[in-house]
Amino acid sequence: MPIVSEEYKEEKKEQILDSAFECFAKKGFQTATMDDIVAHCGMSKGAIYNYFSSKEEIYLDLLTRATDKNFAQYHKHFAKHRTASSKMDYLFNAYLSANPIDRNRLEYIVVFYEFNLHSTRDPDLLQQLHERKRKLVTLVNDIIQEGQQLGEFKSNIPSQLYAERFWTIIDGVNLHAVYDDFPYYDVLRELKEMYLDELKSE
Amino acid sequence: MPIVSEEHKRQRRNHILLSAQHCFAKKGYHITSMDQLVQHSGLSRGAIYNYFKSKEEIYLELMKGIVTREIDPIESHIKTLPSNLEKIAYLFDHYYQLEPMCEEQKEAFFVQLDFQLSASRNPDMMTTLDELHKNMKFELVKRILQEGKESGELKLNIHVDIYTHMFWSFIDAANMQRILFPELPYQSILMDQKQSFLKKITK
User: Fold this and answer.
1) Which keywords has UniProt assigned to this entry (chain B) (predicted)?
2) Which of B31, B128, B157, B166 is the best residue to mutate to test the A interface, defined by the most A CB atoms within 10 Å of its own CB?
3) Average pLDDT of every residue of chain A
4) Which of A113, A119, A168 to mutate to test the interface with B (most CBs of B within 10 A)?
5) Where does the pLDDT of residue B188 fall: very low under 50, low under 70, confident under 90, or very high at 90 and above?
6) What is the per-residue pLDDT across A47-66, written as a single tens digit (0 to 9) for each?
7) Quick one: A13 and A74 in the same domain?
8) Contact at CB, B165 and A117, closer than 8 angstroms
9) Out of A33-47, A54-68, A139-153, B94-108, which region has the weakest mean confidence (pLDDT)?
10) pTM of the prediction?
11) pLDDT (mean) for A126-140
12) Which of A124, A139, B14, B156 has its C-alpha lying 20 to 30 A from B37's C-alpha?
């Protein structure tokens, strides 16, 4: 067997991930099969199975990469922000600045929630999604607690609940972005104002 | 041919739809075949085709029934409430009180969500979804907000359409979470959101 460099492996992996995402987006996560991915990718079945054993594994890798990338970006920016309010502002703006009718973004959202629904039939997958969710909640919870210590945010607010609520807001506008005439920007801006009004000290 | 009463037909039809709801929730719409629907319903293939032309027609009719069953009880309760503020509070309370959800309700939410996602690839489904969303869910909340403004209970500067979208996007996300992660405190999240929402719109 030839010696294959890490770089080569990573390149192949990315090729599979891109192909797989296109299949998921086109057919739906449930309907797309490993065979579809093989056909679309132009690699042999054996070659693909060398890297991933199932479409679920492929999707989880895609999701983990996207989440890690977002987290790296958040933390890079947070380092520049001195107040907790400006960090919360940055997080909301990350979503406010997204283009709601961007085809690629919509596909990403649809496949993500399809995978979520699919996971309700598999406790292991659900567990992984749950862990991801916990990381997201912790990210916001830490900012809220920091703001409470600094006196920027009301001290009597249950930070964990508020962190969960932030992500419910984001899930909501993302889910509704599939409707043609959903005013994504206006809705999120208003929800942001409502949320921050409640959080900030008088 | 025996004479079949309208009532019997209605029951048959509902039985097929409910059986399909279970199959779609368990396996997903796309993977479920007409044969599986036939088998699970316990009826004959011919009997089912008497009522529905295709799997897609079942899906569309099922979706209409699900949204109607979700909204009708809210509509009828709201009629009994004297003020628009109470009506809006009730909208949140209604979803708060759904706990614990029975299997059938969970399946209904699941199918609704799955339908919404699938519709993004299917223009016919999107048309049905848009109509249902607009005529039943959107209209209900919009009307209350509008009347609340006219009666002087609510602030005049709130944008009715935007607040209606804010309500439903949040409710849908909360309902999704209760299917996925029932251990999360979405009930408290819902009540916090209700407080903020009311505070923001009340004069």
Assistant:
1) DNA-binding, Transcription, Transcription regulation
2) B166
3) 94
4) A168
5) very high
6) 999 999 999 999 999 999 99
7) no
8) no
9) B94-108
10) 0.94
11) 96
12) A124
Distance CA B163, CA B190 (A): 16
Q: Check CB contact under 8 Å for A117 and B189.
A: no
User: Do A39 and A114 share a structural domain?
Assistant: no
- In this prediction the ipTM stands at 0.93
* Beta carbons of B114 and A117 less than 8 Å apart: yes
- In the structure encoding, which two tokens stand for residue A12, read together? 């192949």
Contact residues, chain A, for B114 at CB < 8 Å: 114, 117
CATH number for the domain that contains residue A23:
1.10.10.60
**Which CATH number does the domain housing residue B91 bear?**
1.10.357.10
Residue with tokens 């056909």: A39
CA distance B28 to A185: 32
Average pLDDT over residues A169-183: 93
Give mean pLDDT, residues A130-140: 96
